[in-house]
Amino acid sequence: MKLWREVFPDFGVDPSKVRKEMDAPDEQFIHEKHPSFSMAFGSHHAQIRTHSQAGDEIKRTVIVERHKKLTFKVETNVEPPFDVYWKVKNTGPEARKRDTLRGEITKGGSTRDEPVAFAGNHWVEAYIVKNDQVHATARKDMTFLGAST
Predict the structure, then answer these.
(1) Residue 87's pLDDT is what?
(2) What is the mean pLDDT of each run of 10 residues along the chain (149 residues)?
(3) pLDDT computed for residue 4 by the predictor
(4) 79: which DSSP letter?
(5) Rounded to an integer, what distance in angstroms lies between the CA atom of residue 115 and that of residue 136?
(6) Beta bridge partners of 139
(7) Cis peptide before 81 (omega within 30 of 0)
(8) Beta strand residue intervals within the chain, DSSP E
(9) Structural domains of the chain, ranges and CATH numbers in brackets
(10) 95: nearest Cα among 21, 147, 25, 5
(11) Could you tell me which of 88, 92, 91, 103 has the C-alpha nearest to residue 29?
């Protein structure tokens, strides 16, 4: 049951409590942070690939030691030049207890390194922006098991 709770921490929990545990006080949304950006979706797409420090690609659920880092790389068919904005979201009871709920949007390059500080559900989003238009977005959901000791 302990492993089940690590994989599915929200199983059997009142949805209103889950929502509260996911709320980050400083969470940002692309349409609020940059209201001048318009959406220009069409044939453009993006995807995020994740690699461990050893270079192995990570798909979804992973056991990662604390204090290791992951590298996220966004790939897109949007013609350069463009800007990449990243959002990293930490959720769950451990993030709340440590006061590390996140959800800020920051401008960066096509790769982003993130440390693994604790187990739980996390996700990363990338926004591909060109001429003040969001041409593509990508999201990578991750569940870290056994990361806290």
Answers:
(1) 94
(2) 50 48 73 79 79 72 69 93 93 79 92 84 90 92 65
(3) 47
(4) P
(5) 25
(6) 125
(7) yes
(8) 38-39, 46-51, 57-58, 61-63, 69-76, 83-90, 105-108, 111-115, 120-130, 133-145
(9) 2-145 (2.60.40.10)
(10) 21
(11) 103
